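Schema walk-through. Below, the input block comes first and the output block second. Nothing else is stored per chain. Lengths vary across the set, and this one has 132 residues.
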Amino acid sequence: MKKNWKILRRSHAELLKLARHEAKEDREICGFLIDNGYFLQLQPAKNMSKTEGSFSYCKKEVNELKKSTSKLGIEIVGTFHSHPISEAIPGPNDVKHALDDSLMLIFDCIGKEGKLWYIKDGRSSKRVIELI
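--- output ---
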């Protein structure tokens, strides 16, 4: 998997703004990272969790996205979510519930940044984001 990934600056800024807004209610945002061959597209998803400071996906929404990306010949390569009150570092549960060999973008609502991680064999390693 690549070490450097490109993300549209505008998409990154919009989702960070949304994450900071939701953090006021201790809610997380979540979504998917889609590799379109040029950059990572950030596809927001509805957070189904009713628990503060957590997230979960709607199975129907995930299945529809899988079908769409398959038809378009592009790939879901990871997920994103926000941390309302902690750094943009994957916690043990983040890593435990991530798909192996996937990316995870975490938005830090306090530090106002997003950090990208590669999850493999129960470990996370930081990746570089280039905002374009």
